[in-house]
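Components:
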Amino acid sequence: SQTIHQWPATLVQPVGSPLSLECTVEGTSNPNLYWYRQAAGRGLQLLFYSVGIGQISSEVPQNLSASRPQDRQFILSSKKLLLSDSGFYLCAWSVRGLGGYTFGSGTRLTVV
Amino acid sequence: SQQGEEDPQALSIQEGENATMNCSYKTSINNLQWYRQNSGRGLVHLILIRSNEREKHSGRLRVTLDTSKKSSSLLITASRAADTASYFCATDDTGRRALTFGSGTRLQVQP
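Structure:
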């Protein structure tokens, strides 16, 4: 069956520290992959999406970057975190041509 | 960029009542989807309605789509306390590669 793993679940990091969040998908090949961020009580903001290995599209200029080193692995990174990077980060995947997204359980990032 | 907006922002009802949430959007879409999010968790896909469809049912869920008004509604019938969650609409916009999400409706179902 198809599953998505996202970790860690929670993370507290000091300002200026690096970040690496990882997301892996099982049970499907060549998925579209997405990183979204959700502020408290708000909707989801698209950060990055990827349609294949090494193919990353950025939606919003920011302090973050993404990489897709393998077909089913999507990594969100930052070299130096800002307070404004705090939020709930969600990874998702979809199959091309089909509509629904499957989301991971999310990472709650607090930058202090 | 287009943004789906849900209405109301918050809704509190009694168990057994129906809950209706609305979503408006601004541009052309391929389809519109509804998702549910329990507090602090990831989103779960509920239902998808394509731009050439007007109504769709799934269990206690009924979704309508009016592309002339660029709006959609989600009806949950005979609500249960377990339906308490936030509900988001998301649009698959033509010419865009990822879903655009609205700000959500927080539904509280009182037992």
